[in-house]
Design brief:
By secondary structure, this protein is of the alpha+beta class. The chain is built from ten helices and 30 strands. It has a six-stranded antiparallel β-barrel with strand order 25-26-27-30-29-28. Strands 19-20-21-24-23-22 form a six-stranded antiparallel barrel.
Length: 602
């Protein structure tokens, strides 16, 4: 019943701003508040915010921001390219990483630099606000066609001409006779390019087509009540937010959306992407739902997506009148190829498929290999008293309240364990080299209840290869999963009636958003609540330090939480409280090194 109430309240809150008053005018800021999440907007996310988007191959994610890599950190595979300064680079990625630090070094052409090569962009006439775009390639000049002309291409043109905020508005227009030409240049850009030369450029018969015009953004002012202020200070109409189109130029109008408008797709992380990005074999949503098997089952792609793509194709093909001859292919294929050469960690996927079994009260009995990241932590003088999560290399993640640094030599790690009474096959035993407790851990409030354990093998060597263990993936963004998402918690903790149990159990729990209301001042940043509304499944004493794992669209497991504390066990209205691992990505990587835990080279 509580779940239904929450859904209804959420739905009504969306509808509130669409009701017209007696004067027939909408309430203030209606369009913006219908779609945008205000507390998210305040965090000023842009296309360089890796908590919301993937970094490009020439960037790396540092403290939530995509920063420049050095050229040697790019993959060496690829096609050589030439920069606007006349310098040859081994790969496109290397040039972009160089440009990332020196913005004048933009892309000019493929291959080695030749003296006669040139690529120039001009706006004409010079005395107009909105102007036609003329491109000169190797001394041949052509105007850009209106076919397929969008904000993506306009933003790239303006950035090419050093208007870093991109375009203000676009238009299609028939030129006068003095501008007449039998051919024009069709440009197709993804929108992230800094040079028009990076886009696909095709010479086509102009026929009766209009030509593209653009006005670049140059004047900054205060935005009015019906406008959205982009992070880069541009003002755009509020009804252009959350439509999958990068009107801001820095993507800040698409990263904090309750829902999406028109032909765009809503990612679970509240990001809107164009429908044409769906099923293109590139992950654009953080948890991959734009490339999910359910969405992209060959010919079974949904009618809505087919219709969206067909409409875009039809729009681009209007007034077509001539065959296209490819002049220059886009460098987007090189960008995507570079991503495939980046190191990727294979984590979060069990080595065998487990079928669901009939539910027992409070949880299910785990099968061999079902939770291969689950480990048991015991001291030499006691039984298993805490769980932990294997995250790769020689590293275990657990709760700070489970371990003491002074007791490092008294702990034993069991991997592959199912029952604590009769030890099953496939168990490996490790001792510890280090216990690292978060420096701001508060044992009274359970703030920062997180610790890392570094294992060594029986020969006291830092080489760890647990036979039946698979690392759980570490989430780098707190937006990957949100309230309502169903996840799994596992452990050897107490059962109903506080009865001790010896078999690994697990259960489904839902992430919850109202824990600050439930626990008040006891609930801090870096905590996450999960449970069931009737309290029928919950973590309990003895589960501490164990994993709360959530799964993306490819069924890859991310350790979203570490069992930390709660109000009794399985009590209705008091869900379990977990340490939110995504908030500690940088802290974990500081000790383990990013290559150990960065699944997508973030």
């Amino acid at each position: 019943m509580r779940l239904l109430t929450v859904v209804l309240i959420s739905y009504l809150s969306l509808c509130t701003y669409t009701v017209e008053d007696k004067l027939g005018t909408r309430k203030k800021a209606s369009q913006q508040e219908n779609y945008l999440i205000e507390e998210c907007v305040k965090k000023s996310y842009t296309d360089n915010s890796c908590r919301k988007v993937f970094c490009q191959p020439w960037q790396r994610c540092m403290d939530g921001t995509c920063s420049c890599k050095l050229p040697y950190q790019c993959p060496r595979n690829g096609t050589s390219v030439c920069s606007a300064e006349g310098r040859t680079f081994r790969t496109y990625c290397q040039l972009k990483s160089y440009e990332c630090q020196r913005p004048t070094s933009t892309f000019r052409s493929r291959g080695n630099c030749k003296l006669q090569d040139n690529f120039e962009v001009f706006l004409k006439p010079e005395n107009a606000s909105q102007r036609f775009i003329e491109v000169e390639i190797n001394s041949q000049k052509m105007f850009v066609c209106g076919q397929g002309w969008s904000m993506n291409e306009a933003n790239v043109v303006c950035r090419h001409l050093h208007f870093l905020e991109g375009a203000k508005r676009i238009k299609l227009e028939q030129p006068n006779d003095a501008w007449n030409s039998s051919e024009c240049l069709k440009a197709t850009c993804r929108g992230i390019e800094t040079s028009l030369a990076e886009c696909t450029l095709a010479r086509i018969d102009r026929g009766h087509r209009k030509l593209a015009k653009v006005e670049c953004y140059t004047t900054f002012r205060e935005c009015n009540v019906n406008e959205f202020r982009c992070v880069n200070r541009k003002c755009i109409p509020s009804d252009k937010t959350c439509n999958g189109i990068n009107d801001c130029g820095d993507l800040s109008d698409e990263l904090c959306c309750k829902t999406c408008r028109g032909q765009s797709f809503h990612c679970n992380s509240d990001v809107c992407i164009p429908k044409k990005y769906l099923c293109n074999k590139e992950r654009d949503c953080l948890t991959g739902e734009d490339e999910s098997h359910q969405l992209c089952r060959g010919d079974e792609t949904t009618d809505e997506n087919k219709r969206g793509r067909a409409e875009e194709t039809q729009e681009e093909s209007m007034d077509a009148g001539g065959a296209e001859e490819t002049e220059e292919e886009s460098m987007d294929a090189e960008r995507r190829k570079a991503k495939t050469f980046l190191p990727q960690i294979h984590c979060g996927i069990p080595k065998r498929t487990i079928t669901r079994r009939k539910r027992i009260v409070g949880g299910l009995t785990a099968e061999q290999g079902q939770f291969p990241w689950q480990v048991a932590i015991k001291s030499l003088a006691s039984q298993v008293n805490c769980g932990g999560i294997y995250i790769g290399g020689c590293w275990i993640l657990t709760a700070a309240h489970c371990v003491r640094q002074s007791q490092v030599h008294n702990y034993v790690i069991w991997t592959g364990l199912l029952t604590t009474i009769n030890l099953n096959q496939g168990i490996d035993t490790f001792h510890l080299k280090r216990v690292i407790i978060h420096e701001n851990y508060n044992s009274k409030t359970y703030e920062n209840d997180i610790a890392l354990l570094e294992m060594i093998n029986n020969r006291q060597e830092p080489v760890c290869s647990p036979a039946h263990t698979v690392a759980a993936c570490i989430p780098w963004s707190p937006y990957m999963f949100r309230a309502g998402h169903q996840c799994k918690v596992s452990g050897w903790g107490r059962a109903e009636g506080f009865e001790k149990q010896y078999i690994l159990k697990w259960g489904f729990v839902n992430l919850m958003s109202n824990c600050s209301e439930i626990y008040g001042e006891r609930y801090f940043e870096g905590m996450e609540c999960a449970g069931t509304y009737d309290g029928s499944v919950d973590s309990c004493k003895g589960d501490s330090g164990g994993p709360l794992v959530c799964f993306d669209s490819d069924n890859v497991a991310y350790v979203w939480g570490i069992v930390s504390w709660g109000e009794n066990c399985g009590e209705e209205g008091h869900p379990g409280v977990y340490t939110k691992v995504a908030d500690y990505f940088e802290w974990i990587s500081l000790h383990t090194g990013k290559p150990v835990i960065s699944r997508f080279n973030v």
